[in-house]
Amino acid sequence: MNLSQLGKFLNSPDRDVRQAANKAKYGFFSAHAEQLDHIYDGLVRARTTIAGKVGYRTFTKLGYARLKRTDYGPDEVSLFREQVKQRVVPLAEKLKERQRQWIGVDTLRYFDEGINFTSGNPAPKGNSEWILARGQQMYKELSRETDEFFNLCWTMSY
């Protein structure tokens, strides 16, 4: 089974299945750590070389220049990170505590992260054609414009 095929088991209502699926997932990454580290190291070196060749000390500064950032820079990003720590993290902790209680476990573990209901997470009731047909009907019922937009996007994607 590949990593994509593990997905449904990572969110199984059975905690033992979730734990085993996560063990398999992270076992793959652990078994290939040296190869993945080599790839990542190569990417960092390549980006650093690119930055140096165009006059930047780091790729981060080149990244800001490439994006033509005039509205914010590293100082503003640092401030934003602090605000996330102060405001978002406490909210996330409350939500995780609510999730822990909702699924009825003593301690929320990494393999519980994706589960929201003891009966399992919601799953589509039909195949892709069924889902598409209902989406198409929904957009048609919303308005003529959303119907036209949906159909335009659908025909452009195929």
Helix content: 55-70%
First-residue to last-residue Cα separation: 29 Å
What pattern of helices and strands is seen along the backbone? Answer: HHHHHHH
Number of strands: 0
Label the overall shape. extended
Helix count, per DSSP? 7
| Poorly predicted runs of 5 or more residues | none
- Please state the CA-atom Rg, rounded to the nearest Å: 23 Å
Walk me through the structure.
By secondary structure, the protein is mainly α. It has a domain at 125-158. 69% of the residues lie in helices and 0% in strands. It has helices at 7-10, 15-31, 33-53, 59-66, 74-103, 128-142, 144-157. Helix 6 packs antiparallel against helix 7 (144-157). The chain is extended. The mean pLDDT is 92. This is Transposase IS66 family protein. It comes from Alicyclobacillus dauci.
Tag the structure with descriptive keywords.
single chain; 158 residues; 7 helices; 0% strand; Transposase IS66 family protein
